[in-house]
Design brief:
With about 475 residues, the protein is an alpha+beta fold. It has three domains: about 180 residues, no CATH class; about 130 residues, Immunoglobulin-like; about 140 residues, Sandwich (Immunoglobulin-like), CATH 2.60.40. The protein contains nine helices and 25 strands. The strands form five sheets. Strands 10, 11, 12, 13, 15 and 19 form a six-stranded antiparallel sheet that branches. Strand 23 and strand 24 form a beta hairpin. It is globular.
Length: about 475
């Protein structure tokens, strides 16, 4: 049996010093951990553009006359990006906006091409420094390809969002719509895209809210469809709003009094005071209960709150290479939801995420040692020292997932006969084996067979490689 655990005293001492430093920082930062209860669906996060021009897109689906859905698309362009990069040569920005929706065969369903002249000084004082627009469409098809591109004509910088999404089914059952996040709501008699039911609602496609905003509230609009209703048989519905941090702690919980139904369809605006939410990322769950039949419908979304208190300086290096390294360190033990959240955050958010990530997994919180983190970094250290194919390899994944094997057999390359082979044995389910082959003789080992039920299996692996 070959021992796989080997870390030099000096490197381990340096590693422990870094780990204790990070753990101490964890105690100074209150941010978030990830929920394991539900995976994020396609719109639980807003969409962010790719390219040199930054903007955000949020998509809302509402019930319309069958067989259509009403699709609303809001987008927001942060104007400070132009000022910070000295892109503004006058008091305005000139944007070219192209929006198109296509079916699965790439046939165009709707398109918009327009130019916008934006007076920056005006808007930076309003709407949180965003230029915001909203467009509505009726969609019948089950699947739609959305494409939005925005270009600044002065600098030539551009950004793009591409998204394929499926039409929600509203016409058959009691349901609630997608929620629309708004930064400002007031009564209005105007007629424009932001006004509905006599209320002017300014969307927040980035779903980013600031404690310092003049309104001091976050607003969430949604519609309720197809409740039981009979004017001769009065019945009620009840709405619930719950907000959790990413560790699953309930930060805000409001249940409204039962409401007498006046029709089968209605709409609501939930008002959430930002003072109740410390800076961080949150998950909101909106639930409506039709009390007649005791049926519940829920929808979840993520949003961000930016604290008005001064933020701490970055204490971890956050260059692109550093961020990749942090991701590599957690990717085999993080949930899909955690990985998705990590990739959504900016550098400061990623730092906070990493710090809190390890705090969450500490089996003995309150002590100066995080045993889980230490053992995890031991594995990482072993991989770095012993696997020439690195952290992205099959061997690294298996090692991080199942730990060091009980036994490892190595068969070096013999000219004309075979390729280098490693067979790892574990006590899982009695006797579990993983077979790795260096197919190209360059130190990159590929998993070619395992008898573990969750891994790739090929009992004829030896015949295939020979």
């Amino acid at each position: 049996m070959k021992k796989l655990w080997k870390i030099s005293a000096n490197s381990f001492s340096q590693l422990m010093g870094k780990l204790y430093f990070i753990f101490t920082l964890c105690l100074l930062h209150v941010f978030f951990q990830s929920s394991h209860s539900q995976n994020a669906n396609e719109f639980e996060f807003p969409l962010k553009s790719k390219g040199s021009l930054e903007f955000y897109v949020d998509i809302y689906q509402f019930e319309a006359k069958a067989p259509h859905n009403k699709i609303e698309i809001s987008y927001a362009v942060p104007l400070l990006q132009f000022i910070e990069s000295s892109m503004i040569v006058s008091d305005s920005v000139h944007l070219i906006i192209d929006l198109s929706m296509r079916d699965s065969t790439d046939q165009e369903l709707s398109s918009i091409h327009e130019q916008k002249k934006i007076l920056c000084a005006e808007l930076i004082e309003q709407n949180g420094g965003y230029f915001i627009d909203l467009r509505s469409f009726l969609v019948q098809l089950d699947q739609v390809k959305l494409s939005i591109s925005i270009e600044d004509t002065i600098s030539g910088r551009s950004g793009k969002v591409d998204k394929i999404f499926s039409k929600r089914c509203y016409q058959e059952d009691f349901s609630i719509s997608d929620p629309l996040f708004a930064s400002h709501v007031q009564k209005s008699s105007e007629q424009n895209a932001f006004v509905r039911h006599g209320l002017l609602m300014v969307p927040s496609p980035s779903r980013e809210f600031h404690h310092a905003s003049p309104d001091k509230n976050m607003y969430v609009y949604y519609e309720i469809n197809r409740m039981y209703y009979n004017e001769n048989d009065p019945s009620y519905y009840q709405a619930f709003c719950e907000i959790k941090d990413i560790s699953g702690n309930i930060i805000y919980n409001a249940s409204k009094e039962a409401v007498l139904k006046k029709s089968s369809n209605t709409s609501r605006v939930e008002i959430i005071p930002l003072k109740d939410l410390p800076g961080g990322i949150y998950k909101i769950t909106l639930t409506v209960s039709d009390l007649k039949y005791e049926i519940d419908r829920s929808v979840q979304r993520y949003f961000w709150v930016i604290s008005s208190e001064p933020t701490e300086e970055l204490v971890l290096p956050m260059e692109e290479s550093d961020i990749k390294k942090y991701y590599d360190q957690i990717k085999y033990i993080a949930t899909d939801n955690e990985k998705k959240i990590f990739n959504q955050l900016d550098a400061r958010g990623k730092q906070e995420f990493i710090l809190r990530f390890w705090e969450k997994r500490d089996p003995t919180p309150g002590t100066p040692t995080n045993e889980f983190m230490i053992e995890h970094f031991k594995k990482l250290s072993y991989i770095e020292q012993n696997f020439t194919d690195g952290i992205d390899s099959d061997r690294a994944r298996i090692f991080m997932k199942y730990g060091p094997p009980l036994d490892m057999e190595r068969y070096p390359f013999l000219e004309g006969e075979s390729r280098p082979i490693e067979i790892w044995s574990y006590g899982i389910n009695g006797n579990t084996k993983f077979v790795f082959v260096d197919r190209t003789r360059d130190g990159v080992y590929v998993l070619v067979h395992s008898n573990h039920p969750d891994e790739y299996s090929n009992p004829d692996w030896m015949e295939d490689i020979n």
